[in-house]
Structure formats: C-alpha cells, structure tokens
Amino acid sequence: MSAVENESGRGSARAVALASSLGRFLVIAITTYLGLLAVTFFIGRVIPIDPVLAVLGDRAPANVVERTRREMGLDLPLVEQFYIYVKNALSGDFGTSVLTTNPVMTDIRRALPATTELATLGTLIGALFGVPLGVLAAVRRGSIIDQVVRVIGLIGYSVPIFWLGLLGLVLFYAKLQWVAFPARLDVVYEYTFTPITGFYLLDAAMQGQWDVFWDAFRHIILPASLLGYFSLAYISRMTRSFMLNELAQEYIVAARAKGLSETRIIWGHALRNAAVPMVTVIALSYAGLLEGSVLTETVFSWPGIGLYITNSLQNADMNAVLGGTIVIGSVFIGINLLSDLLYRVLDPRTKSA
Amino acid sequence: MSALLDVEDLRVTFPTRTGLIEAVRGVSFSLGRERLGIVGESGSGKSQTGRAIMGLTPPQARISARKLAFDGIDLLGISPRERRSLRGNRIAMILQDPKYSLDPVMSIGRQIVETLRTHEKVSKAEARERALAMLEAVQIRDPKRVFDLHPHEVSGGMGQRAMIAMMLIAGPEMMIADEPTSALDVTVQLDVLGILDRLVSERGMGLIFISHDLRLVSSFCDRVIVMYAGKVVEQLKASELGQAQHPYTRGLLNCMPRIGFERHPLPVLDRKPEWAA
Ligand SMILES: Nc1ncnc2c1ncn2[C@@H]1O[C@H](COP(=O)(O)OP(=O)(O)OP(=O)(O)O)[C@@H](O)[C@H]1O
Ligand SMILES: [Mg+2]
C-alpha cells in the first residue's frame, strides 16, 4: 500500500499515466501506419504491372512513355519516391484511378461510407442480440437457449455467407417482397437524393426525407442482417465463454453472500467483467466486417470498398487497390487503438500499469 | 439463551460421473452469540458446511437436514427470495482471499455501498457516509481515499478489511468466516483477526470461524468442532482442548510444533477409516 497521497496528487498521477499511454498509442499508430505505407509502396514496385503502361496502354511511343515515367516521378531514387509516396498518402492523395478516372480518394470517399454503414449496422445487430444471447446461454448452461446459441454458431461457421445471402434474396426479395432489390437505393432516389456524410440512413434522417430513409432501410436490412448474423454467431459464442469464466470466480460467490439478486450479479458484476475482453472481440469482428464483406457487397451490389478494391484488382488499377488498402488499413489501426483505449477505461487494473 | 443457529444432521451430496460425493455427512451443532471454530484437514467439508448454511451450495448438489434453522427460521423451507434477503443482511460470510473475492472492476466503496443498498432503503449520500464509517471501523486510516480505490490497488490486509466492511455494513447477527486470514501475510493476520474479534464482540454477533489451524482456532474461539471426512468427530470447549478424546484431534494437537522442542521425525497424522464411518 502506498502511503499517504492526497487526492489531487492521485488525480494528476492518473492524468499523467493516461497522457503517457495516449502518447504510446500515438507512437504505435504512427509506426504501424508507416509500416503499412512501406508495405503497399513495396508491393506497388515489385508487382509486374508497369504504372506507365497502365496509364498509356502498350501502344504509346517510347518518348511519351519516357516523359510520363519522369512526370510520375518513377525515375527518382527509391527513397525519394517513398518520401513522395508517404507525403501524398498523408494528404490523402493516392493518385488517379485508371478505371473510374476519378482521384482514388474521391472514389473511396463514396465507397467507404457504404461499407461502414453496412458493417456498423451489422455489428450493432450482432452485439445487441449476441451479447444477451451469450449471457443467457452461459447462465442457463445446457438449456434450450444454450443449444440455440450452439447451432447459430455452427451455422455461422459452416455456411458460406454468399449462399445465405442468395437464399435470403430468393426468400425475402423474390418470394415475399419484404425487402428491396440489391442496391443502396431505388433508382428514383439515386438521382434526387444528395448524401452529406455518405451514410444514407443518417443523411435521410437528418434531411427529414423519411421516404428515402425507408427506402434505404429496405435495401440495407437484408445484407446488414446477414453480416449481423455472422457477427452474432461469433459474439454470442465468445460472450458465453467469457461469462462462464467470470461466473466461476470467487467474487461471484461473495456477491451472492451479500444477498444481491441474480440479475444484478449477472448483468452488474459478471457481464461488467466480461465486457473487458468483449470489447476486443466486438472491435475485431467490426474490423473484420469492414474489410471482409466483399462477398456480401458482390451479392447485394453494394458499392462499398470491398467491391471497389476487387474491381480495381481485376482491372490492374494499382492506385485504387493500394489506396483502398491503405484506407482500410488505417481504419483497422484506428479501431484497434479505440478498442485498446476502451479496454483501459473498462479495466481499472490497466490504469496504474 | 436460545440458539441463533441450529444444525441437525446436515448433509451435502454432489452427484458426479463416478458416483455420489458426500462432502458433508450428518453434521450437527448449534451456535449462540459466541465464537465457534470449525477445524479439520483439507476436504473435510468445512467450507461446504458454511456454504450450506449461507445457501450458497452449488445448484447440482443435494442438501438435506433434519433441522437447519436460523433464529427460528427454517432455512430449507423458505423461498430462495427470502433466503437471499437474509444473506448479507442477517447472515454474512467472509471468504478466504480478497484478491479473488472482491470484484476487480468495481471500486471498494461501491462494493460496500451495494450491500447496504440491497438491504436497506437509504439515500446514496447516507450510504456513502455509512460505508466510510464502516471503513473506519475496520481501521482503515484514510477511508475517503480507499473508498475510491479498486481492489488491485490495495494490499491483502487492506482488501480483507474492505471485505469485512462489505459484509458487516448491513449489521448481520451471524457471520461465517471461511479461513479469513489464510491468504494473508503473517504480519497482518493478527491485525485482521483483532478487527474481526472486536467487531464480533461489540456487536454481539455469532461467529463461525473455519480454519485448519487448530492453535489459532483454540486461541480465538469459545468452542471448537473438529471435522473429519464430512463428519463431526469431536466438539469441545477451546479451553479444554488438552482433554480431547478423539485420536484424530489428538493427532492434530500433536502435529503442532512447540518452541523449544525439537521433533524428529515430524509426526504424521493418523487416519483410520472407522473414524469416517
Ligand atoms: N462442486 C463440487 N463437486 C464435487 N465435489 C465437491 C464440490 N465442491 C466440493 N466438493 C467436495 O466436497 C468435499 C469438501 O469440500 P470443502 O470445500 O468443504 O472442504 P474444506 O474442509 O473446506 O477443505 P479446505 O481446507 O481445503 O478448504 C471435498 O472432498 C470436495 O471434493
Ligand atoms: Mg475450505
């Protein structure tokens, strides 16, 4: 036990600890980001696609090729090229997409919100249903609900997402007509609606255009539920195992000895402790949806970042591929940092360390 | 004086894959406003006896008794809800190791307040005041600061005092202390015992003190129960420990080292199957 410390001393010690851990976070973030840039730069140089040819085609005369090569800075030493590459990347300049002829950043600004909206809704569904399901499965071990969680997890493991997606489309779109066809909006709205943030649900609500909101909802609900299902399968399984671990601890016996209700013990003590590792699990699953929903985006013609990168890759559009990779990587780094920070907030044991 | 707690033929049985494990096999005793020690070797059923009284037996276990009454209340006959309202309120329990028995992510103060507000309708401010007073009663010098600390930030001795505060705040009449000092540093064991001792006598509580340390129990308690393999093999006054009849108790006594006497070879406890019969 440290001896007498006054309150303000403690407070400022905490603040210093938090500031230093924030500083450490920033250093980690910057290093990781530079590493990411280095890797993408390297990939861009070693792959057998000549960026000049990609722009000019293979019938351009030699002097034009030479001039373009110089204009693109490809005759400079590698170190200098990397420096320029980093400088451009930091200012959000990833060059122009050969496929769309837009600056890559413009394309990404359109595609990323589409993916993020889908992934966020999917994760919300996954966490909102997955956490309580996992808790109940742990509390009533061996009961019906525990079996249900197991089966959900099993299907989540073994059934390919595009197959479930197609099945969902056949059932809910073609047969029941509960949801809209694969796209983000009906064609009518595509031209009349001006997005602000790129999150259509949010934009429509902010502008009070409830018909657009409803339309966007009818388009997003099926793919979001699908991603939500897979995220739920994972989150509920992890919640269950974390909860079982917490419920076996001595402090739970002590909480019972205090006369607390089961509700309070489960949701107030056990889940509060399980929340610490859950943060990482949910963040990882969210990050996974952000980069890994290519199949879903394909099945649902969702103009997201996964679809964008896949299309670019198939057309050897390296600027777009690398730019997209860097942006997704940055999002990954950001989410990881955020979950690390949240972990620290939730677990008092990490503060003094 | 009518007994605070009456236990007659208490049995706790765990069904397992390999058959039934009888952890407690017909334990009987009664407790007034006194200190009763329960000693016995590891696995003799001391903790399970305590937990059965608390109503904290694991759900898969079967529990039975001819009589299990606290202050005239038939503990096995009342509803789980009524049982719960006794716990922490009229019967409390202190666990062995504060490192594991306090919730790591909740501040010490909130854990103490939680017990109080579960059993009494008091305002937040009053609950805080009383928790601070309780921390002072367990001889924590700087209660305001400790109130906001988390369990990992305090030492074992401090943690166990917080545990005592958490369990005593609602003013229970009976307390079960399951090896409350075994996990502590020897230097603070006596401090914590002293605090427990004072609070128990000040408040006139009944105490069941579980330990495997016969010397500690005999110096701390009025009466001692010796358990072996789920049964009570001997009950006697702490002052009359020297006159113990049962060979197992005598064995335990003989195992205690005495200053000034060299013992070679070290004595080994005798265990005879007929004692468990
Ligand atoms: N969940 C359980 N399932 C099966 N058997 C159990 C369970 N819990 C306890 N037991 C058995 O009950 C018996 C008594 O255990 P108990 O914890 O009461 O012993 P103890 O006297 O407190 O020992 P110690 O000094 O080690 O704390 C042990 O033999 C143990 O194997
Ligand atoms: Mg024990």
Key descriptive features of the protein:
heterodimer, A: 353 residues, mainly alpha, MetI-like fold, globular, B: 277 residues, alpha/beta, six-stranded mixed β-sheet, five-stranded antiparallel β-sheet, binds adenosine-5'-triphosphate, binds magnesium ion
Write the layout of secondary structure elements.
The complex is a heterodimer of chains A (353) and B (277).
Chain A: H1 7-46, H2 51-56, H3 62-71, H4 78-90, H5 104-139, H6 144-158, H7 161-175, H8 187-192, H9 200-206, H10 210-247, H11 250-257, H12 262-292, H13 294-299, H14 305-314, H15 318-346
Helix pairs in contact in A: 1-4, 1-15, 5-6, 5-10, 5-12, 5-15, 6-10, 7-10, 9-10, 10-12, 12-15, 14-15
Chain B: E1 5-16, E2 19-31, E3 35-40, H1 46-54, E4 62-64, E5 67-70, E6 73-74, H2 80-86, E7 91-94, H3 98-101, H4 108-119, H5 124-137, H6 143-147, H7 156-168, E8 174-178, H8 186-203, E9 206-210, H9 214-220, E10 223-228, E11 231-237, H10 247-255, H11 273-276
Parallel strand pairs in B: 3-9, 3-10, 7-8, 8-9
Antiparallel strand pairs in B: 1-2, 1-4, 1-5, 5-6, 10-11
Bound molecules: adenosine-5'-triphosphate and magnesium ion.
Could you characterize what this model shows?
The complex is a heterodimer of chains A (353) and B (277). Chain A is built from 15 helices and no strands. Chain A has 353 residues and is mainly α. Residues 1-9 of chain A have low confidence and may be disordered. Chain A folds into two domains: 2-87; 114-309 and 324-350, MetI-like (MetI-like fold, Orthogonal Bundle), CATH 1.10.3720. Chain A is globular and about 85 Å long. The longest helix of chain A is centred in the first third of the chain and has 40 residues, at 7-46. The two termini of chain A are 15 Å apart. Helices cover 76% and strands 0% of the residues of chain A. Chain B is of the alpha/beta class and 277 residues long. Chain B is built from eleven helices and eleven strands. In chain B, strands 7-8-9-3-10-11 form a six-stranded mixed beta sheet, sandwiched between helices. In chain B, strands 1, 2, 4, 5 and 6 form a five-stranded antiparallel beta sheet that branches. In chain B, strand 5 and strand 6 (73-74) form a beta hairpin. In chain B, helix 5 (124-137) crosses helix 7. The longest helix of chain B has 18 residues, at 186-203. In chain B, 42% of the residues are buried. The interface between A and B is medium-sized, with 27 and 38 residues. The structure holds adenosine-5'-triphosphate and magnesium ion. Residues 14, 16, 21, 23, 40, 42-48, 58, 212 of chain B line the site of adenosine-5'-triphosphate.
